[in-house]
Amino acid sequence: MRADPPASRTRFSFARSYAIALKEFVQMRRDRLTFAMIVGIPIVQVLLFGFVINSDPKSLPTAVVDYDRTEFTRSIASALANTGYFAFVPAPASAAAADEMLARGEIQFAIVFPAGFSRELVRGARPSALVAADATDPSATGNALAALSQVSTVALAHDLTGPLSALAPSPLPFTLDIQRRYNPEGVTEYNIVPGLLAVILQLTMVMMTAFAVTRERERGTYEGLLATPVLPLEVMVGKISPYIVVGLIQSVIILLAARYLFNVPMVGSLLLLGATMMLYIAALLGLGFAISTLAANQLQAMQMTFFFFLPTMLLSGFMFPFRGMPLWAQALGEIFPATHFLRIVRGILLKGNNAADVAAHVWPIALFLVAVGSVAMWRYRQTLD
């Protein structure tokens, strides 16, 4: 017959709980990565959310094409700059060149004053100036476009005096033809759903690959892999190849949902999108493999993955307008491959960008792949030694 446990074992003991808690603190202190996550994540969140979130971006790059070149057009341009929303870049040679800059994402607005604008204004014909906006992200342009109504009212207040004072009252002496390019209705899904392709791929690809080596290390099969004569590059390619197929399947599912559930337009070449997507997936898998060589176990691999995922979400332009962030945050965001792939996806699907248009965003992803791949192979060689 089984004896009953002593009474001291059945009563709650603060001393025993304290001893177990102390043991947990000691283990946490020994696990440097976990300790760094405990301290680092709150600091990173406070800094990023405090400085990065900006729903009212200012100083948006704007190109002005002035075919008229008169005092009136200069006054209107000056009034636009005074709103704080428009920051003028060197003027392109023509309206067509401005359209190309808009398509490549180099500028947010293109303003065109036609020839004879001032002559028509003086005659009371109410001429029109074109304001073309890159509306792929409606939140980036909404407040700036709303400020244009005020500009139309006050821009020529100091110019329409004396004999021209009759032109000052309503109706306004000129109009602004506002064109919301690539997303005329300001549909949020057109911006969010293509961005989800970059975000979902990053989370799943990096995490699955990060577990690749750490899982074998925990199961005890890693030593057998080290004993084989395979090269580090062969191990890396062999490890990430199955997940490339997984990433392509996920991409097809997301694109089908974008087209048939959310009616996202697909203007550009899907073949070009697929080629750039392969490069992006390879870069993410290379990062995951590098993490797996650095992490001691699957828990550390998951922690490192999320430590990379959080700033990417905030700094890539997926959640908040990229140009609304401070310059240091924009410079940091340019490091992440998701930032460039977001621009590629939105450019191809919404703008119909070609290979030349997206080339400026392809090489940073390729450079990231080379960097993380080199780290992964270096760490793997250290393991062999």
| Global mean pLDDT | 83
Structural class: alpha/beta
Number of strands: 5
List the total number of helices: 16
Portion in beta strands: 5-15%
Q: Supply the number of structural domains.
A: 2
Oligomer: single chain
The succession of helices and strands, N to C, reads: HHHEHEHEHEHHEHHHHHHHH
Which regions have little confidence, pLDDT < 50, spanning 5+ residues?
A: none
Rg, please?
Answer: 28 Å
Largest sheet: 5 strands, mixed
Give the helix level as a range of percent.
55-70%
Cα distance spanning the termini:
58 Å
Q: What strand line-up does the widest sheet have?
A: 2-1-3-4-5
Q: Based on CA inertia axes, which overall geometry fits?
A: elongated
Characterise this structure.
The protein has 385 residues and is an alpha/beta fold. The protein has helices at residues 7-10, 14-30, 32-52, 71-82, 95-104, 117-122, 138-146, 148-154, 188-219, 222-227, 232-260, 270-294, 298-315, 327-333, 337-351, 355-384; strands at residues 60-66, 86-88, 109-113, 128-134, 175-181. It has a 5-stranded mixed beta sheet with strand order 2-1-3-4-5, sandwiched between helices. The longest helix has 32 residues, at 188-219.
